[in-house]
Amino acid sequence: MQHLEALTREAAALARGALPLTADEGEVARTLQICNACRYCEGFCAVFPAMTRRLEFPKADIHYLANLCHNCGACYHACQYAPPHEFAVNIPQAMAKVRVQTYGDYAFPAALGGLYRRAGLTTALALAGGLALFLLMVLAMRGSLLHAPLAGNFYAIFPHNLLAVMFGVVFVFAIVALGIGVTRFWRQVTPGTRASDDGGAAAGGAAHDALRLKYLGGGHGEGCNNEDDAFTLLRRRFHHFTFYGFMLCFAATTVATLYHYLLDLHAPYALTSLPVLLGTVGGIGLLIGTAGLFWLNVRRDPRTGDPDQKPMDRGFIALLFLTSASGLVLLALRDTGAMATSLAVHLGIVMALFLTLPYGKFAHGIYRCAALLKYNIEKRRPSDLALGAD
């Protein structure tokens, strides 16, 4: 009972912004106070208009603004108070450090929140475990990693129902864990939202901003600052290749599932079939996008990010790249005696990706979409600082 009362008091304090700030949160609050006085970057992205609606920055608002930041770097290179100035304003780096704290603070189960700080090790262990599991399963079921060609019949290696249960359980857990985490985040950052707000228009605006990656356009739509003060749209382009490539691969799996259960059409599917075409195009898009994002990440100016998060960033990029590459290799080898081995490798990588979805870089897209929705609701309301605001 006492534990429940303590949690209730903590939740109420968080809603009031009364909980003490961590060092990283305090740095965001300090720099935002300076930015709120300057306002030179007010037109750069959504963070600064949202900032101007506030005079103080309690914990919940700091987490909201940190996830609204797309880390484009434009404000850092435009800022007259950036290091080596004594004010040392560095919004991109300060926001990046708080974002990873957000994921851990709202993680479900809470005990696994620390995995975000150890994402590199977690990714490596998940990948090694996934590969070992499926390769050992092939050996147990067939006695060898090589076999006579099976005309692309994956289910001659692993039964369909077995794969459906294994991946279904892990995927549902990932969705539930992320869903609970972002729901907790949403409840803290959206107090006072009125029922009369136009939720449909706000949701449409948030979807528009997210799908276009509007705020990876930099301060003037010319792009991000990556390794220096030169603008480039490559980060937006490679993100688009990655996101839409991933969605096409997901669509391929969805269509194949409908074929299997609704139309009673079972794999293997022809190279010209819709699932194969969607997966092939999506896989190529993923290869291009992730290779480009890794290249940009290596070249990124360390002053505009959190160096401690590089293992999380690169681990996620690597898993997406390997998922795509192994899938395309599997397609090329599906009619050969190496199909079982290539299938086991692909499934092991996909399993590692699914296992790490709730506790890795994938979370940034979920929390950022929630922050964009909050912003699109908020900007349709009169400012609470305006005269006569209700």
SSE arrangement:
Elements: H1 2-16, H2 23-38, H3 47-51, H4 59-68, H5 74-78, H6 91-105, H7 119-142, H8 160-189, H9 199-212, E1 224-225, E2 231-232, H10 234-261, H11 274-299, H12 310-333, H13 339-356, H14 363-378
Describe this structure in words.
The chain has 2 domains: about 1-105, no CATH class; about 115-375, Fumarate Reductase Cytochrome B subunit (Up-down Bundle). Helices cover about 65% and strands about 0% of the residues. The chain contains 14 helices and 2 strands; from the N terminus they run αααααααααββααααα. Helix 7 runs antiparallel to helix 13, helix 8 packs parallel to helix 14 (about 365-380) and helix 10 packs antiparallel against helix 11. The longest helix is centred in the middle third of the chain and has 30 residues, at about 160-190. Residues about 1-15 have low confidence and may be disordered.
Rough outline: elongated
Most strands sheet: 2 strands, antiparallel
CATH class identity of the largest domain: Mainly Alpha
- Give the helix tally: 14
Number of folding domains? 2
Uncertain parts: 1-17
Quaternary status of these chains?
single chain
Order of secondary-structure elements: HHHHHHHHHEEHHHHH
Fraction in beta strands: under 5%
Which strand order does the major sheet show?
A: 1-2
Gyration radius, rounded: 23 Å
Helix/strand class: mainly alpha
At CATH level 2, the architecture of the largest domain is Up-down Bundle
Determine the CATH topology of the largest domain.
Fumarate Reductase Cytochrome B subunit
Q: Could you give the distance between the termini?
A: 38 Å
> What is the total tally of β strands?
2
Helix content: 55-70%
Mean pLDDT: 89
Transmembrane segments: 121-142, 162-186, 241-262, 274-296, 316-333, 339-359
Keywords: Membrane, Plasmid, Transmembrane, Transmembrane helix
Protein name: Citrate utilization protein B
InterPro entries: Citrate_utilization_prot_B (IPR012830), NarG-like_sf (IPR036197)
